[in-house]
């Protein structure tokens, strides 16, 4: 499992550090996301072309499309895991490439379809992020992600070593979601992060997401 997790991190570890233009701090605001004429290319071909998108703070948006249509690329651009080749991405009116990267990482939480579970124990995995989440925040996040039930059945609960935890695909996704819940920022971006959840669990997780968005 450790080798598999390392392989899933390879693309991120090989990315060059993203530059920033030092425009200063972002004003306190609810997390208004705007993409202006965004385009992304790879190997000379377009992945995204002329994307205009506005997501007001305190709202949620689902992007639906066939496999290979660019949803994951859009998710990466929206939180600045990837810079667009053309256009701009703004958070509360400030271009993301003008934000100091460490500050931006505190403002954007991600969850993925196949999350890399870093850390020694399950608790470490959920707590890991731009800051180390407290034990209370870890448990609140696990409940929101509907992970607390299966974690209670592990040999040592939250202290169970991740490498020894027999996790299904859906349980891994719930740990990734819990990690995102434990590090709330202005944006939470889910890249197919509910795909392995059963219908009941997905319903509860979506309700938790709506509550955090203020719905």
Structure description:
- It comes from Streptomyces anulatus (Streptomyces chrysomallus).
- This is ABC transporter ATP-binding protein.
- One of its GO terms (molecular function) is ATPase-coupled lipid transmembrane transporter activity.
- It holds the Pfam family ABC_tran.
- Keywords: ATP-binding, Nucleotide-binding.
- This protein starts with a helix and ends with a helix.
- It has helices spanning 2-13, 71-78, 101-107, 122-127, 135-144, 148-151, 169-181, 199-212, and strands at 33-42, 45-55, 86-91, 94-95, 108-112, 187-191.
- The chain has one domain (2-212): P-loop containing nucleotide triphosphate hydrolases (Rossmann fold, 3-Layer(aba) Sandwich), CATH 3.40.50.300.
- The protein has a four-stranded antiparallel sheet with strand order 2-1-3-4, covered by helices on one side.
- The longest helix is centred in the C-terminal third of the chain and has 14 residues, at 199-212.
- By secondary structure, the protein is of the alpha+beta class.
- β1 (33-42) and β2 form a beta hairpin.
- The radius of gyration is 17 Å and the shape is globular.
- α5 packs across α7 (169-181).
